[in-house]
Specification:
alpha/beta, 8-stranded parallel beta sheet, 3-stranded antiparallel beta sheet, 15 helices, globular, binds uracil, binds zinc ion, hydrolase activity, Amidohydro-rel
């Protein structure tokens, strides 16, 4: 029996939830007329908000979700919007305290039966806000590197306010690379809400389209800045299977070819860099997983001119860079007895990818994550 490892699963630890409760503008937690706590996370969200409760902060609720769904190990990360809305001194001290809290959350989780492995590992956070000295960010990187159960960090797309192609981040990437930490790149802002028009579509457009577009833009700007040439060993895991980057990578390569200024900054064809990334398998469908695994495996071959001949073998090879996730505790079921659709659908998708055999399925369910996060 193989394990199941969830690499995309979030928390708001109690200290963070208290900050959210103390605020009067988004992001905030408020109590509605029915006396229930609700989470208001985006600026333009209606006052209805989303459900929020113990599964965000109580380790027993996380463990019982894991037990209900057969998840053996979770690599938990803080949920958006992290510390983005804070001033530098608050961001610095809250990052330090939350990384301590997260290490303790992981350390107090039970071990797997007959194993020295814990059931929960973590991804810390950095005080990435405009105006903060880079030295404070580097201190947080060292703090995370020293914490035994933290294996990397979750990062939004803003960097120090200017995005992930900001040269001021170079020392941060260098420290992350040198310490062998994983970066989990995750969206929060979506795109300009005017793109969504006037019809009431709730959270559907920002979450289904805005989130993946934001991730796509952020990682593309990182690639175009030449960061992968400067930091070739950096390990970045993209949320939601890389947004739309896999689908658009050949178009991106063609646009770069026609722009000598950008082309001259890069050592490789744009598709080469896709092969340096990892992708969660939170795509909800087998065709999407098949496509992503094929594309990322072909990535390195574009420069040699041979690209189109081996799709099933590519799918198997590319699966080694894909990792199961759930996005818990977002998208809860409507009744408390139901299984979470995000788990059921993402597991069914993994089982149904044409061309993935037992090895690939087991890799995506657990083996790839254990290797990637050094959980052994
Ligand atoms: N998933 C997340 O991680 N964050 C959200 O805000 C919604 C879904
Ligand atoms: Zn998420």
């Amino acid at each position: 029996m193989t394990l199941l490892v969830d690499v995309h699963t979030h928390v708001y630890l109690p200290r963070y939830a208290s900050w959210l409760r103390s605020r009067s503008v988004a992001p905030r937690i408020l109590v509605n007329e029915a006396g229930e706590e609700r989470l208001l996370i985006l600026e333009n969200e209606t006052n209805v908000g989303r459900p929020v409760g113990p599964s965000y902060w109580d380790i027993n609720a996380k463990l019982s979700f894991m037990d209900q769904h057969g998840i053996d190990i979770s690599v938990v990360s803080f949920a958006n919007p992290w510390l983005d809305f804070l001033s530098p001194p608050d961001a610095e001290s809250l990052a330090r305290d939350l990384n301590v809290d997260l290490e303790e959350y992981c350390a107090t989780s039970p071990s797997l039966p007959s194993s020295s492995l814990k059931r929960i590992y973590g991804l810390g956070l950095l005080p990435l806000v405009p105006g903060i000295p880079v030295s404070s960010v580097l201190e947080a990187v060292s703090q995370i590197a020293k914490a035994p159960h933290l294996r990397g960090l979750i990062m939004g797309t803003k960097g120090l306010g200017k995005g992930l192609d900001d040269d001021a981040l170079n020392p941060v990437w260098k420290a992350i690379e040198e310490n062998g930490l994983v970066v989990f790149l995750h969206p929060h802002y979506g795109v300009d809400p005017s793109a969504w028009g006037e019809k009431e579509n709730g959270h559907v457009l920002p979450l289904a389209l805005g989130f993946p577009f934001e991730t796509t833009t952020a990682i593309t700007r990182f690639i175009l800045s030449g960061a992968f040439d400067r930091f070739p060993s950096i390990r970045i895991l993209l949320a939601h299977s890389g947004g739309t980057l896999p689908q658009l990578s050949s178009r991106l390569a063609s646009c770069i070819d026609h722009d000598p200024v950008v082309a001259s900054r890069l050592k490789h064809d744009a598709r080469f860099y896709l092969g340096k990334l990892w992708f969660d398998a939170v795509a909800y469908g087998p065709e999407e997983l098949a496509f992503v695994s094929e594309i990322i495996s072909r990535a390195g071959r574009y420069e040699s001119g041979s690209t189109n001949t081996k799709s099933l073998a590519d799918r198997k090879e590319g699966s080694k860079r894909m990792l199961f996730g759930t996005d818990h505790p977002f998208f809860p079921p409507l009744s408390s007895s139901e299984k979470w659709k995000s788990v059921v659908e993402n597991l069914e998708a993994i089982d149904a990818v044409a061309g993935w055999g037992t090895n690939e399925r087991e890799g995506v369910r657990a083996g790839n994550a254990l290797t990637f996060f050094g959980i052994q």
